[in-house]
Amino acid sequence: MIDASSLPEWAAVLVAVLVLAGAAITLIGTIGLARFSTFYQRVHTPTLGTSLGAGLLLAGSSLYFSVASGRPVLHEILIFIFISVTTPVTLMLLARAALYRDRAEGNEGVPGTDQEAVEDATRIL
Q1: I want to staple 102 with a disulfide (CB 3.0 to 4.6 A). Which of 23, 45, 94, 110 is the partner?
Q2: Is the model's pTM score more than 0.85?
Q3: According to the CATH classification, is domain 4-124 in 1.10.10?
Q4: What is the 8-class DSSP label of residue 5?
Q5: What is Dmax (Cα atoms) for the chain?
Q6: How far apart are CA 88 and CA 90, in angstroms?
Q7: In sequence order, which residues have a C-beta less than 8 Å from that of residue 2 and are 6 or more positions away?
Q8: Per-residue pLDDT tens for 52-86?
Q9: If phi over 0 gives left and psi between -120 and 50 gives alpha, with beta otherwise, what is residue 124?
Q10: How many CA atoms lie within 13 A of 5 on its CB side?
């Protein structure tokens, strides 16, 4: 077991800052999820909060265990790579599925269904 009291003060402060910043960013993303009204607005904030918040938490964890054990601990880098790859892909798949469903049902307020916006997009292409 690694004793936290043997951690140098500079490392303890840096770990605390990283963990608190990561938790705060994740909390902000969660509040955004509860606060926004439509699915398309709600899907962005948890994704950003998860990626950046988890990155800071993992940086704090890696620093703590590296300093406490006296050797580099890099398992968190692999976790961060998986999170940073899977979170945006999941966001994109969820948004596309919801967009397809809403357009097929003819729901109002669907992004990109405004006729002028569609014409502008086709002119650009």
Answers
A1: 110
A2: no
A3: no
A4: G
A5: 65
A6: 5
A7: 65, 68, 69
A8: 999 999 999 999 999 988 888 888 999 999 988 88
A9: alpha
A10: 0
